[in-house]
Amino acid sequence: MQSILxxxxxxxxxxxxLLAASHKYQIPLSQWLDLSTGISPFVYPLPNVxxxxxxxxxxxxxxxxxxxxxxxxSANLLAVSGSQEAIQCLPLIFPKKQKVGxxxxxxxxxxQAWAExxxxxxxxxxxxxxxxxxxxxxxxxxxxxxPSAETLSTQRLEKWHQILQQNNSTLLVDEAFMxxxxxxxxxCNTPKQGLIVLRSIGKFFGLAGIRLGFVWAxxxxxxxxxxxxxxxxxxxxARWAGKLALQDTDWHAQQRKRLPELAxxxxxxxxxxxxxxxxxxxxxxxxxxxxxxxxxxLFAYFQHPRAKIIHKQIAQQGILxxxxxxxxxxxxxGLPKDEQQFKRLEKVLEGCTG
Length: 354
Hints:
By secondary structure, the chain is α/β, with parallel strands linked by helices. It has helices at about 20-25, 50-55, 65-70, 80-90, 110-115, 125-130, 155-165, 220-225, 235-245, 250-275, 305-315, 340-350, and strands at about 35, 75-80, 100-105, 120-125, 140, 170-175, 195-200, 215, 295, 300-305, 320, 320-325, 330-335. The protein has two domains: about 20-45 and about 250-350, Alpha-Beta Complex (Aspartate Aminotransferase, domain 1); about 60-245, Type I PLP-dependent aspartate aminotransferase-like (Major domain) (Aspartate Aminotransferase, domain 2), CATH 3.40.640.10.
């Protein structure tokens, strides 16, 4: 019998499984550097939570929606308990057996949610999308892509949306990692028919634990989604924290400057030790010219035949990364926060023996 202290594992693993890594490698939690997620290492500096946030149920006239409207540039938003709530509820508001094309790679919960509700899900490469648009009811795109870091242009996505609209079909875009480059978002002041955009507070603001996100869409879509939400879906502390974070334009500007700088530094470090270091100097990873480290402002990603070995050797030194072990083994690295963390990562990469 499963102990109540040992809940069953989720069907899919996420980054940030630090407790499991600590147990597996017998390294205390305090000694780990967790680079396994795409969550910002800089957490929005919240003040102490007011007592009222714990004592009173949340109310929708607290200013959160107004702050979100200013931040995203539109009032057509629904607050949700993280993107995950929207991901799970969206398949419920469409007729059954929709043909849903998902641009791969994509966050695994998307495919799972649509398939569980009886929709017909197919996975597509970027090159396959346009040939399939006329026969899709819904095209789902994560932009920037997680984990591959590819970013599709607004022009390409708008073209796809126009084609889909001719058949009364829908484009659904998950922009969880878009905040560092808001100019590339599809959100505009007035919602468009057949276009839905998901946004997350957790990644850019480093506030994944509060579980807050937004859906931007036509009023009919938002109303349908709201009917599937639990009462008080977004907690009072989450609404309070989200309002403060969304209003702080000076912090947004600081974050949009420092995150890309750290990402570029991380890419250079990985390329030095993973792809360009000759084997005879002690490095375990061979030279190659046809593979690269890709990145967003919040993480770096690369495919490599020895990804599993790299992941294990780094973990044995107390640095957790995210291993993707499908047909093309790959690793995702979140951002080190400061000089000390970069030096630690470099030392570990340099000392790997393979």
